[in-house]
Amino acid sequence: MIIFDHNLFNKFFVFIDRHDAGTRLANFIKEYIKGNEIVYAIPAGGIPVAKALCKVLNLKFKIALVSKIVLPWNTELGYGAVSIEGDVELNEELLRFLNLNKETINKGIEETKNKIKRRLEMLPKSLTSIEKDENVIIVDDGIASGYTMLVALKMLKRYSKHISIAAPTASRCSLILLEKYCDKIFVLNVRDLYPFAVADAYEYWYDLSDEDIIKEITNGI
Questions:
Q1: Which residues of the chain form beta strands (DSSP E)?
Q2: Contact status, residue 165 vs residue 180, Cβ threshold 8 Å
Q3: Closest by alpha carbon to 165, among 94, 80, 66?
Q4: Rounded-to-integer distance, Cα 25 and Cα 139, Å
Q5: For 29-71, how does the pLDDT look when each residue is reduced to its tens digit (9 = 90+)?
Q6: Domains, the chain, ranges and CATH?
Q7: pLDDT digits 0-9 by tens, 105-161
Q8: What's the mean pLDDT in 70-89?
Q9: Which of 88, 32, 89, 84 is nearest to 62 (CA)?
Q10: Which of 196, 202, 146, 156 is nearest to 176 (CA)?
Q11: What is the C-alpha to C-alpha distance for residues 69 and 82, in angstroms, rounded to an integer?
Q12: Sheet architecture: strand order including 38-41
């Protein structure tokens, strides 16, 4: 089931920043919340969104160690994603279009695995350990192709019976990809325009560094 705000369909710059987006997302989904859900943020951008959401809804905050595999010449564009448990999902259609060779693809996968391992070492184990729980919500700052969220879903499905996903903004095609893998999808701003960029939903946008991640989690929720 996809639940979205029809008033924000195909709109741009609808959120001030990630914290504003998380607060508004929390108010959007609160009628569906039982109160016992664990929220897993996808780093890096999903962390401030999830923190704000957890603060409003008083839910437990954790981090799902997954990351997109980026192109060498465009770090905003991913051609797949990897999880800490070794799950790999590749956007085969995009790879065919780009005609990437196997060496480049495998190098990207290894670099992404190393990035996740680095984050595992720098983040508190209490936030990155996966708990067995009935109800889970995975949060990101936006869903473009859907492959990072797909990897997170497949990883957490091994531990949780009911999984929903929530994001301030998403492309329509990504929601079609993800719908069959989760119980509910909550999105405020859905766009079916091409090209899609998560950043276009935000007035104030920047990439979060590892240092920014540490600041976010040390500020508490």
A1: 2-4, 38-41, 60-63, 66-71, 74-83, 88-90, 133-139, 160-171, 185-191
A2: no
A3: 66
A4: 10
A5: 999 999 999 999 999 999 999 999 999 999 999 999 999 999 8
A6: 2-66+129-218 (3.40.50.2020)
A7: 999 999 999 999 999 999 999 999 999 888 999 999 999 999 999 999 999 999 998
A8: 89
A9: 84
A10: 146
A11: 7
A12: 2-4, 185-191, 160-171, 133-139, 38-41, 60-63
Q: What pTM was computed for the model?
A: 0.95
Give me the residue label for tokens 């920014």: 212
Task: Return all residues near 99 (Cβ < 8 A) that are at least 6 apart.
Answer: none
Dig out the tokens for 10 from the structure.
Answer: 């195909």
- With beta carbons less than 8 A apart as the criterion, state whether 47 and 216 touch: yes
Give alpha helix (H) positions in 58-101. 92-98
Residue 44's pLDDT is what? 94
- pLDDT-derived band at 218 (thresholds 50, 70, 90) equals confident
